[in-house]
Automatic annotation (TrEMBL):
<dbReference type="GO" id="GO:0005829">
    <property type="term" value="C:cytosol"/>
</dbReference>
<dbReference type="Pfam" id="PF06337">
    <property type="entry name" value="DUSP"/>
</dbReference>
<dbReference type="InterPro" id="IPR000626">
    <property type="entry name" value="Ubiquitin-like_dom"/>
</dbReference>
<dbReference type="InterPro" id="IPR028889">
    <property type="entry name" value="USP"/>
</dbReference>
<comment type="similarity">
    <text>Belongs to the peptidase C19 family.</text>
</comment>
<dbReference type="InterPro" id="IPR029071">
    <property type="entry name" value="Ubiquitin-like_domsf"/>
</dbReference>
<dbReference type="InterPro" id="IPR038765">
    <property type="entry name" value="Papain-like_cys_pep_sf"/>
</dbReference>
<dbReference type="GO" id="GO:0016579">
    <property type="term" value="P:protein deubiquitination"/>
</dbReference>
<feature type="domain" description="DUSP">
    <location>
        <begin position="453"/>
        <end position="548"/>
    </location>
</feature>
<keyword id="KW-0788">Thiol protease</keyword>
<dbReference type="InterPro" id="IPR035927">
    <property type="entry name" value="DUSP-like_sf"/>
</dbReference>
<dbReference type="InterPro" id="IPR033841">
    <property type="entry name" value="Pep_USP48"/>
</dbReference>
<dbReference type="InterPro" id="IPR018200">
    <property type="entry name" value="USP_CS"/>
</dbReference>
<feature type="domain" description="USP">
    <location>
        <begin position="89"/>
        <end position="415"/>
    </location>
</feature>
<dbReference type="GO" id="GO:0005634">
    <property type="term" value="C:nucleus"/>
</dbReference>
<keyword id="KW-0378">Hydrolase</keyword>
<dbReference type="Pfam" id="PF00240">
    <property type="entry name" value="ubiquitin"/>
</dbReference>
Amino acid sequence: MAPRLQLEKAAWRWTETVPPEAVAQEHIEAAYRVRLEPCQRGACRRNCRGNPNCLVGIGEHVWLGEIDENSFHNIDDPNCERRKKNAFVGLTNLGATCYVNTFLQMWFLNLELRQALYLCPSACRDRVPKDTDYEPQSICEHLQYLFALLQNSKRRYIDPSGFVKALGLDTGQQQDAQEFSKLFMSLLEDTLSKQKNPDVRNIVQKQFCGEYAYVTVCNQCGRESKLVSKFYELELNIQGHKQLADCITEFLKEEKLEGDNRYFCETCQSKQNATRKIRLLSLPCTLNLQLMRFVFDRQTGHKKKLNTYIGFSELLDMEPFMEQKNGVYVYELSAVLIHRGVSAYSGHYIAHVKDPQTGEWYKFNDEDIEKMEGKKLQLGIEEDLEPSKSQTRKPKCGKGTHCSRNAYMLVYRLQAREKSLTVEVPAFLQELVERDNCKFEEWCNEMAEMRKQSVARGKIKHEEVKELYQRLPAEAGSPYDFISLEWLQKWLDESTPPKPIDNTACLCSHGKLHPDKISLMKRISEYVADFFYRRYGGGPRLNVKALCKDCVVERCRVLRLKNQLNEDYKAVTNLLKTTVKGNDGFWVGKASLRSWRQLALEQLNEQDEDAEHSNGKMNGNAQNKDESNEEKREEEEELNFNEDIVCPHGDLCICENERRVVSKEAWEKLKQYFPKAPEFPNNKECCSQCKILEREGEENEALHKMMASEQKTSLQNLFHDKCRPCLGSWPQETDELYIVSQFFVEEWRKFVRRPTRCSPVSSIANSVLLCPHGGLMFTFASMTKEDSKQAWLFHVIKHLPVPLHSIALIWPSEWERIQKLFVVDHVIKITRTQAAGANPESICYTSEPQLCPECREGLLCQQQRDLREYTQATVYVHKVVDNKKVMKDSAPELNVSSSEAEEEREENKPEGEQDPDFNQANGGTKRQKLSHQSYITYQKQGIRRSTRHRKVRGEKALLVSANQTLKELKIQIMHAFSVAPFDQNLSLDGKILSDDTATLGSLGVIPESVILLKADEPIADYAAMDDVMQGERDGEGLGLGWWPRIRDGKVENGDCDVSQSLAAGYSE
């Protein structure tokens, strides 16, 4: 079938020869495409939207082909959720809990730990209530129940939400897996330490706890100091290493303590050079090796992942690393924990764990568990899932060795000589598991029954649809109905039951089927339509009587005018060249004549566009379309033809330059396209009201020019801003000055410069300078400070259209002339008084009206409050490199050689020169050099910074708010200067800013403040930093204050319990 656009043109091709008044029924049916040939199955690959008789490709293939019972329902086979024989049970990922699932599976396959947990006493060990669901009360009970389900459940996977909720973990935020392992093991050890059974009480120490010693040897006297410490995992640095053995060697390497890091020897009673190293004293049965893939990047202030390959073997001989060589220290690999992804803040955790009973390897990936072939560990596919930024190729691995760039934890177990344990589930736990298995079987039976019922209903509908589809096409000459294609597709879609038929969205303004909606409709037989309306209801029905003749006739007229438009445009152009004689012509706007063809085309398309959008899409939101079109028409009202010569009174405008006379023939052709255009014969008089207003306007302009000239002559110095008085240095020739607002002066100057464009200023509103009580809001001292005047005027005069930046002083002689020219509501005067022969310091200044103390105090409080409650303001952070050069760069306002003119020139420099790093040696004035002591004095005195701030080298502007914390400011500084928050030393006016939780408002940081930043030098040797942190964790050097403490079965970090600690993860 032809494309839709071709079908559209063919449906209306008859309009080229048929005028609107001759439209007949055959033309209406052609417009609605009633007589188009229907498409046959196999001939059309997809449905023809332009042919209402094409019923192919609307979803019927599902019902006409072979019956697939699975298509009659959307219920998965419940047997897919059943555990397979000799398979392990998975764990559901609750959002971002894959790291928890990996550790649970690894601990479950530690048979000794599982057996010890089963021996823990439980509150319901003797009797399990049958009428209520089992809810574990402790961490041990949660683990017992989870391990029992993992061992004997019939489900393919189970839900660990109870265990995760008990720990207080955020299921939507991925935590640090290594930190979680440490915290949970500490919690489990503390919980089991209260058990009476020694096999249970000491299981964590037996399985995971080893001992090493920090040994420090004095180089002077040879004294050896030993500090023994327990460990549950060895944290190995992998930077710069390729093999696991190299990582262990570096962990145990000797460290020299020299210089500032010398060791205080008890024997020598002084600091001496020394050596320090770690000696392994004993190893646990299960050796956890943490590969430190996630390290802190001091340059960015964030964690990053080291995607480097590390090689490791399946057998690990630890004897060369032990202090005592007489033991058995051969370990075999039992688990590899993997982190997929290149970022430390995202990715996915999986675990490869070896079954201790069969020796087979399994990959645990949340709900999915995959058995490795041939009892071999296979890591190859895990290394190719995420691209790495480095181009390092994967090294070759020999037999019994592996290498990985994603492994973050290796678990080795002591090579066992005896047979593996057989762990049985206790009776009370087995009863709980059987109860859960019964619920699972009930669910499976329920799902199977629902599938069976859906299949039965589907078969019935299949026969019904098959029969109705055969009778769906309307035969030639038989009654028919139009129905929505969208509704038909939903009827054929078994997953979405159809709603009642709604045809209101395809109706025209006459309540019938709109011709433009025919591409969204299908013509079906009356028999099938009767069935649809009986079964599903709805309406209105669109049969042969719903074909709208009015719409077809109007479309015929529009299409014919479109075809005739080009010819009429040429004819009108030629007619405009002829001169109109007599009174037979008509006035037409020149702007309308220039664009009349475009206006006509838009107007002809307007009806089509309104018809297309006013009803909206089928089952769409028609109201929004109506509103948008209404707004569009309002915007385009000013573009209507010939309305450009209509005056505001609805008559012919008086400006003859905007219109011209056209002939009667040209006007008649234009009227065909614009029947509603305003008509003005060339003998039509212009608007009388506009003529009167024009004369009045000319008279007013002359009057305004005269007023402006008179006022400029009377107040010439005020207009040119010359010889103005100043309060800072009171003029000797007078003892009184008058005050007006600068806003009045600026508006008056605008009028004098452009009297024909600006309105005259007739009055001086000095009330805006007074408080509600009629008193002044400022003192004489504050008037002499420009900044103070700006501040209070911004707060007081809030109702003015523009802000006032200052006040204007008026000479007494000028004030006399001002009172004659303007109406003054309040007189504001400043008077200087001094007794004869008195000391000049005894001069007194008084104001009229007097100061209002109450409002003045309130104004000052408001100013201080605004300085502490800003929402978005600029502060400047200046990075100090050398204290001796602080003032050189950070206090340009103290420069004795700078001037206002120089500041203006610098502000107007090109954009490149405004950069603080742009060639400041050229054209920059030298600044006053201050010593370090002078810098401290400057900081303590808090010298006012110029309101016209100039950014200098090493300084950056930041947008802040008063309620943000100092910590948030440090993060902004980190992004601006690449200095980590803990390397930042901030000060403001000599005061150190150290409280990260305090807000900037409470710390006294106000807009335009300059904060000094002193950056600590970062540690270049990251390995040395890791050693320091390792010593801190193990109770040496920096103390134990940060490490979680065990108290009453909870892991605490300060005042946080285990829930908060685990939820916090590694965020800090």
